[in-house]
Amino acid sequence: MGPEIxxxxxxxxxxxxxxxxxxxxxxxxxxxxxxxxxxxxxGIDKLWRRKAVKMIKARGTTKIxxxxxxxxxxxxxxxxxxxPISVIGIDLSARMIEIGRRKIADSGLGDVVKLTVGDCLDLxxxxxxxxxxxxxxxxxxxxxxxxxxxxxxxxxxxxxxxCVIELSTPRSNIVRPIYNIYSMKIIPAIGRAVxxxxxxxxxxPLSIAAVPxxxxxxAIMADAGFVDTRCRTLTLGVCSIYTAVKPAADSxxxx
Length: 255
Hints:
The chain has helices at about 20-30, 35-40, 45-55, 75-80, 95-105, 145-155, 175-195, 200-210, 215-225, and strands at about 65, 85-90, 115, 130-135, 155-165, 225-235, 240-245. By secondary structure, the chain is an alpha/beta fold. Strand 4 (about 130-135), helix 6 and strand 5 (about 155-165) form a beta-alpha-beta unit.
């Protein structure tokens, strides 16, 4: 067995807690983050977000929390496509939030989308505040994955949906060797060329390899209390979309 995802840190075991290192890393790479996303995925990350938003739209949502929002790409897409009352995006990185706020101002959606610095392990919202919680490419950066899911469960309304987009490792014996070369060699090389912090893109493939995937991720979601847990893999298995629901309030007491 490999290391647990919480043990994979951007700057190694001796450089502080994972949350602190993740914050430092994203503050460092914030100026090149959007460019690197497009370069690493050849722009397919946009298609993955659109697929997730279509899945969310089928349920209908009005108040959305986007955890690990980064520069707000998913938050902005949901505001455009879902016509919600509000989308709140939180992220540890103040520099990512700063860039995201500029994007929101340019979009004219500032009355719907609000971004703020926040901790996924200690969400600053009352119980049952949102009818949808999302995370795009962020749960592998959580310092404590189970606690993160528990917090998202807490702030979700009964009957509400969680949607997690995360990078994953292809299972195909044909695809996996090509993917390994790309993720372990090419992505770090692009990171060194573009980013101010090349270690961030050495951390990336290691964190993808270590994060729970498929049924293992669904089991963690179920342990947090979610039901109707589902996983859909995309693009030969390099991305997975996980969805689940917080059980509706028990109506048997009214009968």
